[in-house]
Amino acid sequence: MAKTDVKVLGAWASPFVMRPRIALNLKSVEYEFLEEDFGSKSPLLLQSNPVYKKMPVLIHQDKPICESLIIVQYVDEVWASGPSLLPSDPYDQALARFWAAYIDDKWFPSVRGIVLPQGEEAKAELMVQVFEGLALLEDAFDKCGQGKAFFGGDKIGYVDIALGSFLGLLRVTEKMNNVKLLDEAKTPKLVGWAERFCSHDAVKEVMPETDRLVELLKCFKPDLNHRLVDRT
Predict the structure, then answer these.
(1) Pick from 229, 132, 151: nearest CA to 190
(2) Helices (DSSP H) in the chain: which residue ranges?
(3) Long-range contacts: 117-121, Cβ < 8 Å, 24+?
């Protein structure tokens, strides 16, 4: 397949844009990364996603697919010859979808709230919610991974991509707030998982460096900070 047959529209720092890039890397699919600016939206992005007007967008054979986890599912189904990202068992697949939805809808909003400007009392409450969520995800790792290296078992899977895409932002949150969120004493399995995930060849080239992300957040105005941690 020609490289131009597959394109990803997005910004390098967005955790949501990381997801389709990791999925394509795992499937060994060559693609063209079309860099978007956080401060503006290209005509191609607006044309490709006229409903939400947000990235990421996968363009495959001139057809746009939107929303990060939908794109990951699409990649898994289209390039089925590569390693499976979703489990084949219906129950295990439902469990993976459940935890991915929990990460996006319940846990990540608390992380996002810490990154955005907040009062100290509100930030402290959000920290509690993040820790509670990580404790739940520690248990989920046992259930989904069944004692293996990743949520997806021996290989990176759907939940790994959903949660792992936020690790860069999680590290930024730790650094900017002088707090340890992934703590060896509290969530040792997630700590080990995070190290394995970030060192994987499919992830290393797209995982933003912590210091670079910190500088980006410092330079951004508050409204652009919101774009970074949202589905921009």
Answers:
(1) 151
(2) 15-26, 43-48, 68-78, 90-102, 108-115, 120-145, 158-164, 167-177, 188-198, 201-204, 210-219, 222-228
(3) 117/222, 117/225
The Cα–Cα gap between 124 and 130 comes to 10
Give 129: exposed, middle or buried? Use CB within 10 Å, 0-12, 13-18, 19+: middle
Rounded to two decimals, the pTM is 0.94
In 3-state terms, what secondary structure has residue 39?
Answer: coil
Tens of pLDDT along 114-171? 887 778 899 999 999 999 999 999 999 999 999 999 999 999 999 999 999 999 999 9
- The whole-angstrom separation of Cα 183 and Cα 144 is 20
User: From start to end of the chain, where are the E strands?
Assistant: 6-10, 32-35, 57-60, 63-66
Contact 56, 36 (CB under 8 A): no
Identify whether the C-beta of residue 121 lies closer than 8 Å to the C-beta of residue 128. no
81 three-class SS: coil
Single out the residue of 201, 199, 164, 207 nearest to residue 25, CA to CA.
Answer: 201
Q: Residue 70: helix, strand or coil by DSSP?
A: helix
Closest by Cα among 135, 72, 133 to 105? 133
Vertex 70: Cα angle to 69 and 76 (nearest 5): 90
Strand order across the 63-66 sheet? 32-35, 6-10, 57-60, 63-66
